[in-house]
Amino acid sequence: MSFENAPVTKGLMMGSALTSIIGGIFDVKHYLHLQLVPHVSRNHQYWRLLLHHTAFSNSSDLLIAEILLYGVGVHVERQFGSVKFASFTVASVLLATILEFLTLILFHNLGINRIPSGPSALLFSILYQWYRLIPPAYHFRIFGIAGSNKAFVYILASQLALGHLPGSFAPAVVGLLTGFIYRSELVNIKSWRLSPSIIRLSTRFLLPLVGSTRAPRRSTRARPETTHQTPSPDIGNEEVIATARPSPGTEETGGSVVREWVNELTGRNEQGTTGVRVPSDAEITQLTTMFPNMQRAVIVGALQRSPNIESAVELLLAS
C-alpha cells in the first residue's frame, strides 16, 4: 500500500511527527496539553484548545497514531477524495474542540480535568468513518470468538484510548461522537468544503512539501538482461577464428597438465604417452601415513615426479 491519492493523510502523518519532534527538542510539550484548571479557567489560555491537537506528548502515542493513520486514513481519503477529506479533517477538529471543552466543563469534578496533547480526537473520527465505509477483508474465529482483520486496528486504537486514563479516554469518545455527527443528519456539515482559494494555495505551497504520492510502477514483462561487450581495438585487423587451431609444438605440452590432473582422479596408466609415473596405492598409503598433515594431491604429485618412493620422501621433506 502506498500514499497514492492520499496526500492529506501523508501530510497529517508528516505534520504530527514533525511537530512532536520539534516539541521534544525545544522542551515545550508542557504547553501542548489541554487542562481546564488552572490553564483555561484561571489563566485564560484558550489557545490551548486548538494547540493541543498539533503534537503528541510522547513517542509511543506518536507511533500508534502513525500506524493508525497509515492503515486507516489512506482508505478513507481514497473513498472521500482529497478535497472532501481535507474539509472533513478541518470540520472534525473544530467540532472536537468544542466537544472536548464541554467535556472538561461537565466532567472535571469526576476527575477529567486534563486531556493529553495530540490529534487523538481527529484520529478516532477518521476511525469511525473507516468502520462505516471499509468492509472487512477476512473473518476468523479464535476459541469460538468471531473476528475480522479490523480487530487488530481496534486493539491498536484501544492502546491510544487507554494509555493515559481518564484523560486519554475523553478524546477517544469525542472523536467517535464527532465522526457519528459528521455522518448523521444532526448537523449538515457533510456538504461543506474548503474554499477554492485555500485549495489552490494548499496545492501550490503545501503539496510540494508533502512530496510524491505516486506508487512505484513495476513492469510485469520479463526482459532478458542486455550485456555490453567492449570490442577489441584490433579486432578489425586480425582474423577471427572460431575454433582454435592446435599447433604441433604446443599440443602435447598444453595437454600434459590436464592429463596429469585426470590421472590423479582416475588413476589411469598413461605412462607410455606422457612419461609421468603412476604411483601405486601402496606408495600413496605409505607416504600418507608418514606425512599425515600433507594433502593427498601433493603426495601424488611428488610420487609422479620421483623415480622411486625414497626420492619422493626427500622431495616432500625439502618442500
Walk me through the structure.
- With 319 residues, this protein is mainly alpha-helical.
- It is 57% helix and 4% strand.
- The protein is elongated.
- The chain starts with 6 loop residues before the first helix and ends with a helix.
Topology, please?
Blueprint (H helix, E strand, L loop, with lengths): L6 H19 L8 E2 H5 L7 H4 L7 H22 L1 H26 L6 E2 L4 H14 L5 E4 L2 E4 L1 H12 L7 H15 L12 H15 L40 H16 L4 H4 L6 H10 L5 H10 L3 H10 L1
Antiparallel strand pairs: 1-2, 3-4
What attributes characterize this protein structure?
single chain, two-stranded antiparallel sheet, 4 strands, mainly alpha, 319 residues, elongated
Short description:
This protein has helices at 7-25, 36-40, 48-51, 59-80, 82-107, 120-133, 150-161, 169-183, 196-210, 251-266, 271-274, 281-290, 296-305, 309-318; strands at 34-35, 114-115, 139-142, 145-148. It is mostly helical and 319 residues long. The strands form 2 sheets. The chain has a two-stranded antiparallel sheet with strand order 1-2. The chain has a two-stranded antiparallel sheet with strand order 3-4.
Tally of extended strands?
4
Helix percent reads 55-70%
Q: Overall mean pLDDT score?
A: 85
Radius of gyration: 40 Å
Biggest β-sheet: count, sense, barrel?
2 strands, antiparallel
Category from helices, strands and their pairing: mainly alpha
Number of helices: 14
Distance between the termini: 66 Å
Query: What's the SSE pattern?
Result: HEHHHHEHEEHHHHHHHH
Shape: elongated
Sheet with the most strands: spatial strand order = 1-2
Strand percentage, roughly?
Answer: under 5%
Which regions contain 5 or more consecutive residues with pLDDT less than 50? 234-244, 246-254, 269-274
